[in-house]
What does this fold into?
Amino acid sequence: ACGNHGSKSRNVTVEKYDSAHASGTKEAARCTLFIVEGDSAKTMVTTGMSVIGRKYYGVFPIRGKLLNVRGASPSILKGNKEVQNIMKILGLNFGRKYDTEEERRSTLRYGKLCVLTDADVDGHHITGLLLNFIMHFWPALAPHFFVRFVTHIIKVTKGKTAARHFFNLEEFELWRTTTADASKYFVQHMKGLGTSERNDTIGYFRDMKT
It folds into this structure.
C-alpha cells in the first residue's frame, strides 16, 4: 500500500536524477547514489564526477528536509514524492528486509547511498532524517548501505602555503590557539557546498578515489 517499488529496473526516470551508468545492472552493487541538498550541491557532485566518472556514481538532489517517516501512515508515505523518488531510484521495497547480501545484490539498483549535505545544523538534520528513513524500514540494510560524505567547514590560507582544512570547530580552535602566526591566515567559513571552489571539489573526489 506504500508504493512498493523494488523491481530492479535498468532505467529509472525521476526529475533531476542523474543515473550511474551501471545502476540496475549486474554491477549495481558497485554503484553509489549521492543524495544531496539542493541543486548547487548537485552541481558540485557533477564537477566531482569529472574525477570519479559516471559509471558507478549517480546523483539526486532533494528539496529541504525529508519526511520524518516514524509514525507516518501508508497513505502519507505513498503521497510523499521525495520518499517515493528515493525508493524508485534505489529499488527499495517496503516488503523486503535486505538482511542478506544475495537479496541486496539481486534487488537493489545501488550498493550504497551516500549523503552529501552542507556542514551545518540543517545539513546534519537532513542526514539524520535520511538515516532514520533507512533504519526505520530496513535496519539490516543500514550498516552495509548508508555512508556520509564529509566536507570541511573552515579553510585557512596564507600566501602560497597549501590551504588547511578543518572538519569541525574544535579542530580549528586547537590549530588557532597553537599556531603562532594564525592571525596572518585568511579564514574562510564554508557556509554551504555551493561555496566550495572547483579546486576544493576536485580535491574531495580525488581523495575519495584514492
